[in-house]
Specification:
With 98 residues, the protein is α/β, with parallel strands linked by helices. It has a single domain, classed as Response regulator (Rossmann fold, 3-Layer(aba) Sandwich). The protein contains four helices and four strands. A four-stranded parallel beta sheet has the order 2-1-3-4, sandwiched between helices. Helix 3 links the parallel strand 3 and strand 4. One of its GO terms (biological process) is regulation of DNA-templated transcription.
């Protein structure tokens, strides 16, 4: 079993559950959040190794959440989820490297 903890921050209940189940089936510990504020609170309370982060959270842009995580010293790997298809949205995440 892996000893890694992954935060899944996704407001869509179905997608959040699918991603969380898939990660758990591979042995990861999973914590979840439904919006950016909850994601930031969760990371402050639980050290995470990776974050699966929706760009279109209801209270904030996932890229802003990523920047806030970095500003707070969180160096977890971040994987962005998005249904957006334009190049600007896809490339913006790459600019948030450490």
């Amino acid at each position: 079993m892996n000893s890694y903890t992954v935060l899944v921050a996704e407001d869509d209940h179905g997608l959040r559950d699918v991603v969380a189940r898939a990660l758990r089936s591979e042995g990861f510990e999973v914590v979840t959040a439904v919006d950016g504020a909850q994601a930031l609170k969760t990371v402050a309370a639980v050290p995470v190794d990776a974050v699966v982060l929706d760009i279109g959270l209801p209270d904030s842009d996932g890229r802003d959440v990523c920047q806030a995580l970095r500003a707070r010293g969180c160096d977890a790997a971040v994987i962005f989820l998005t249904a957006r298809g334009n190049v600007t949205d896809r490339l913006a995440g790459f600019l948030l490297r450490r």
